[in-house]
Specification:
Layout (H helix, E strand, L loop, with lengths): L3 E12 L4 E7 L11 E8 L2 E8 L9 E7 L4 H7 L6 E8 L10 E7 L4 H12 L5 E8 L8 H10 L3 E7 L11 E2 L4 H7 L7 E6 L1 H14 L7 E5 L5
Parallel strand pairs: 7-8, 7-11, 8-9, 9-10, 11-12
Antiparallel strand pairs: 1-2, 1-6, 2-5, 3-4, 3-6
């Protein structure tokens, strides 16, 4: 797929949680990418170009724009993003990356943490829109239920697609009585309970670097999966 570089502008900004936002930039109809790929995003900070890498959180089936999703921190780049308005300038260079899924496997498991969910959201949305027959389980970890990005979005996908199962787990729920998901870090016991056929699946792992390293160790050493069954990407959107 050919790498394209082009100037663009913001067409929509969507709050996903109390501190996570999605930014949509217009793209020409002939711009293509695979679900799970990433883009170089350039904006201006005090008149100077600044570039960061972001996984795309929209699916190729969602045409006319590309979207990336970011936790807003105190970094200069985050603060500049947070000040962007509709029509704000940007430059994109894309697509990059091989952490992709387009239906190559019969059964997959996605394991994601925090805002590292973006590439997984792209792949799950693509699978649902294209009505792929792949059996998909997603285990999505967050600090609390208010930190779950794309919560309604994933619930909608699961309601429409009987082949998609989503397991939410949080470190500590804000309201234990109301919380219906799992509690605690993802460990081998949770994987065995929620994905009993784990040994037959291809795993996609994406999230904070420490989480990714921990999950790779768990899958390969504790659950004895072959290295070829584990695809991973350390999410670069943390600063």
């Amino acid at each position: 797929m050919e790498i394209e570089e082009f100037e663009t502008s913001v067409i929509k900004i969507i709050p996903r949680t109390h501190d996570i936002k999605s930014f949509r930039f217009a793209v020409p109809d002939d711009i293509n990418f695979k679900p799970g790929q990433y883009s170089l995003v350039t904006i201006r900070i005090k008149g100077q170009d600044a570039t960061k890498t972001f996984s795309l959180s929209n699916s190729p089936t969602e045409r006319g724009y590309v979207e990336f999703t970011k936790r807003i921190t105190q970094s200069d780049f985050s603060q500049a993003l947070n000040q962007l308005k509709i029509g704000g300038w940007g430059r994109l260079k894309m697509p990059f990356g091989s952490f992709t899924f387009e239906g190559e496997f019969d059964k997959v498991a996605f394991v994601a943490g925090g805002v590292g969910i973006t590439a997984t959201r792209s792949m799950c949305k693509n699978a649902c829109d294209r009505k792929l027959s792949t059996d998909i389980t997603l285990v999505y970890a967050n600090r609390t239920e208010k930190d779950i990005a794309f919560h309604d979005d994933f619930d909608g996908m699961q309601a429409e697609n009987s082949s998609l199962e989503i397991v939410y787990t949080v470190d500590e729920p804000i309201d234990r009585a109301a919380w219906k998901g799992r509690i605690g870090f993802i460990n081998s016991g949770m994987v065995k309970q929620e994905i009993p056929d784990y040994s037959t699946r291809i795993f996609y792992v994406c999230g904070p670097p420490r989480m990714v390293d921990s999950m790779r160790f768990l899958l390969s050493n504790e659950l004895k999966l072959d290295e070829q069954q584990i695809k991973w990407e350390r999410f670069s959107g943390y600063d």
